[in-house]
Amino acid sequence: MTPPAPGTTPAWDRDTLPEGDDKRTAVREMFDAIAPRYDLVNRIMTFRLDVRWRKTAVRTLRLPAGSRVLDLASGTGDLCIDLRNAGYAPLAFDLSHGMLVNDRSGAPRCQADILRLPTPDAVADGVTCGFALRNLTDLEAFFAELARVVRPGGRIALLDVGVPHNPVIRAGNSIYFGKVVPKIGALLSDGTAYRYLPRSVAYLPERGKLVEMLRAAGFADAEHRQLTGGLTQLLTGTRD
Fold it and tell me: pLDDT for 198-234, tens place per residue?
């Protein structure tokens, strides 16, 4: 990773959230920076709920044993470990070299932009993606890429942070995610990155729009679920 020049502000810590190629570069550099302590910070800031959320996502795939599942934006390999424990054959793809270096899963892995995967059509029985939708530059292109690489009848399970329906939970989550999480990140990892991550929720369309986009891409039964009162959202679907 090439760090920002001395005296400059990283793109992910500016007043205006980055877009387009600037966002892609910023996301890659940011995750390279936080990769070594990414798992530790995740466990602490979610009180280990992230472990439960990933297992729930894997259960929703409902694929035969041995199915090939691409884990996109795979990070340090948590979902790949869960996929293998469930009897699947995971393959990891991530834009961040730092994350792939810190992968603990042992799954085959590839550095790639998940909007343009280096794979043939209909190569996968399933796809998972954990907490990365808001970091992509073009969600419609991503959903189209999912439709390209997943065979008919294959399944997808996509996790990301959510906006709770309940106003009390929503207010508490806003305070925790916006105020406490950046302090945890600053103490244990990179403060600028963990100030960006709560703000990045603004990139996500509302849940109805996400489902509509997935159905238009080729997942006609796409559904949205709130997990843990809406702290996290899970999108699932079957390839037409």
Answer: 899 999 999 999 999 999 999 999 999 999 999 999 9
In a domain, 193, yes or no: yes
59 within some domain: yes
CATH number at 128 reads: 3.40.50.150
Q: Which domain holds residue 205?
A: 18-154+164-223
Label residues 111-123 b or e (16+ Cβ within 10 Å = b). Answer: ebebbebebeeee
C-alpha span between 8 and 10 (Å, rounded): 7
CB under 8 Å to 26, separation ≥6 — which residues?
10, 11, 12, 18
Query: Is the residue at 118 inside a domain?
Result: yes
Q: Summarize pLDDT for 66-111 with one digit per residue, the tens.
A: 999 999 999 999 999 999 999 999 999 999 999 999 999 999 999 9
As for how many domains the chain has, the answer is: 1
The pTM (predicted TM-score) of the whole model is 0.93
Q: Does some domain include residue 228?
A: no
